[in-house]
Design brief:
single chain; Arc Repressor Mutant, subunit A; 6-stranded mixed sheet; 5-stranded parallel sheet; globular
Length: 390
């Protein structure tokens, strides 16, 4: 079956003309290897997950790099952290751009190695699983919202038409749990499994480490370390509260989100899309998906997502707040299919207290009609890519 083109490929090709090296980061199975090989089919490909390649690179880094005089694609580069200093010398020897395309699926060590050894020599692009826009371009997007949230967006599910529940089961046991063991010493894997399921039950909610630690029977420091590991493996991300208080006391804790709704749904033991239609987590999973899609719209262009949420001590909250050219774009996220006046209350309150700093408010919802109501752009879930239309 023909592979689904990635929006990030154009960005990657441009960066490779401007920098000696480019690193593609993102979760395992998000398509980093496929993207790099599609963009640079002539470049030699080397997987540092393979033991013989890794041993060669670790024991004789100069000899290893000399095998690739014109550069190469080095997959899972974080497996050989000592290679970075030798890459620095190699890149400095030539003015050629795009010599080495690096991929990595763990942020621990990888980003610090890049900043220490390859600063100014490497550009970074983060690749998340498919966006809805990418699936729509090849007519493989699910037609129903519940099916989309249940399936998630990981490429193998769509490239190979796999059963999502079987794939996520294998993904967690094959990749996530193995990566966790590499990053930290988890003595009781079953407790970690319970912890990540608790995280899934809290996706789209304010992070309360003390409560999670107590519910899971672990220390606060352990919970903090495990959250960091899940962040480093691109399983979850923390959405920070916006700093602007507008004379109100702000909530300072971040909100926890999974990068992929399908993985969260599997961890919640949701069996099928029909169950998701009436599941109490439906709203949070929809919010999880929307936030991830907004991140992809920026990350696919190698841009930093200036994304936050806003909540004050009085309970006023905006699900998503984007900074754009000095203005704040408030975005409310509702999974309901029918638009009701209640959907606009939070936006109306925020606009009223934002002292003219709010601009182009948006409602993204689970229905299918485009509207403009009371100055708010109402965007159905299928048209979320229009959020960044110029």
């Amino acid at each position: 079956m023909k592979l689904i083109p990635r929006t990030a490929q154009r960005t990657l090709e441009i960066l490779a003309k401007e920098y000696p090296s480019v690193v593609i980061t993102g979760p395992r199975q998000s398509g980093k290897t496929t993207l790099s090989r599609m963009a640079f089919p002539e470049q030699p490909y080397v997987s540092l997950e393979e033991l013989d390649n890794r041993d060669f690179a670790q024991q004789d880094p100069r000899g290893f790099l000399s095998q690739y005089p014109q550069g190469a694609i080095l997959d899972e580069i974080q497996r050989c952290p000592d290679l970075f200093s030798y890459l620095q010398a190699r890149l400095d020897e030539s003015n050629k751009m795009g010599q080495f395309i690096l991929t990595g699926s763990q942020q621990f060590g990888l980003l610090s190695s890049i900043s220490q050894s390859l600063a100014g020599r490497v550009a970074r692009i983060s690749l998340l699983p498919f966006s809805l826009q990418e699936l729509q371009a090849v007519k493989r997007a699910p037609g129903k919202l519940a099916e989309l949230l249940f399936n998630g967006m990981y490429p193998p599910i769509y490239d190979r038409k796999l059963n999502p529940r079987i794939w996520y089961d294998n993904y967690v046991s094959t990749y996530l749990e193995r990566d966790v063991r590499q990053l930290i010493n988890v003595r009781d894997l079953s407790t970690f499994q319970r912890f990540i399921r608790m995280c899934a039950a809290r996706t789209g909610q304010i992070l309360n480490l003390s409560m999670m630690a107590g519910d899971c029977g672990i220390t606060h420091n352990t919970a903090k370390a495990w959250i960091s590991v899940l962040e480093a493996s691109y399983i979850i991300h923390l959405l920070r509260p916006h700093h602007k208080n507008f004379n109100k006391r702000l909530i300072k804790s971040p909100k926890l989100y999974f990068y992929d709704s399908g993985l969260a749904a599997w961890l919640l033991n949701i069996q099928n899309p029909g169950q998701l239609e009436i599941h109490p987590a439906r709203g949070h999973l929809f919010e999880t998906w929307v936030v991830s899609e907004v991140l992809k719209l920026k990350l696919n262009k190698a841009l930093r997502p200036d994304a936050y949420f806003w909540r004050d001590s009085s309970g006023n909250e905006i699900d998503l707040l984007l900074e754009d050219r000095g203005k704040l774009i408030p975005i409310e996220i509702k999974s309901g299919e029918t638009i009701v006046s209640e959907f606009f209350r939070a936006i109306d309150k925020f606009v009223a207290i934002a002292n003219g700093e709010a601009s182009h408010p948006v409602l993204i919802y689970g229905g299918d009609r485009v509207q403009k109501r009371s100055g708010v752009d109402v965007i159905p879930w299928k048209r979320i890519s229009t959020l960044t239309d110029d």
